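Quick illustration for those who missed Monday's session on complexes.
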Amino acid sequence: MRFDIVTIFPEFFSGPFEHGIIRRAKDAGIVGVGVHDLRSWTSDRHHVVDDRPFGGGAGMVLKPEPLVAAVESLRLPPERGRAVVVLTTPQGRLFDQREAERLASFDQVVLLCGRYEGVDERVVTAVVDEELSIGDVVLSGGELAACVVVDAVVRLLPGSLGCEHSASEDSFSGHGGLLDCPHYTRPAEFRGIAVPDVLLGGNHAEIATWRRRQALARTWQRRPDLLEGVDLGEDDKRFLEELKATAK
Ligand code: ADE
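Prediction with adenine bound:
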């Protein structure tokens, strides 16, 4: 799989992809990441990528010609794989674990980083397949959002996490869409706070039950909206009923 990122700040990406899992996945040939300067698709002497908005108002808008030219030169032709063109913008659909899994199934993701007050809408009409937002928060540009998308997708690619860890054990997928349970390591007591006994006892069935219930309780307390998408067993339902009853 490969990512091609189009940005007016290519240097921004010199750090985030040089560490940890993304670095390893690149070195292992699991993923390729190309970072491209939008200005290289301008034809004027000053490499202008933005202009004032028609109709007036504050800020500048990214011009359509360089972005469309960038997509047309970077996007893989259909015979070379499945490609998707994504614009990062706060107006986009919310990026979540399911979206990450979906993007991981493409051969190429072209990421256009939005900037300034916006992007000429004809870019969206002409070449963008999807607009994605990483949350209901306004960033100064789409670069950080693009990093979030790359990170979330790369760790799902087979082989990128190594054998000792699996993405299927994360929050939102491991416990079937629940938040993760708490974790502890040594020492067994820290500042008077003890690790729960069950984790020290070595009974794997009890530990699994404890973890499942912690995940259920946390999700109910912190993100009850997530419970709607979770496949709950009879034990889960009984536990949640008890929890709700004792909380009243
Ligand atoms: N650009 C600015 N804010 C953004 C957000 N929340 N998600 C994606 N791109 C953005």
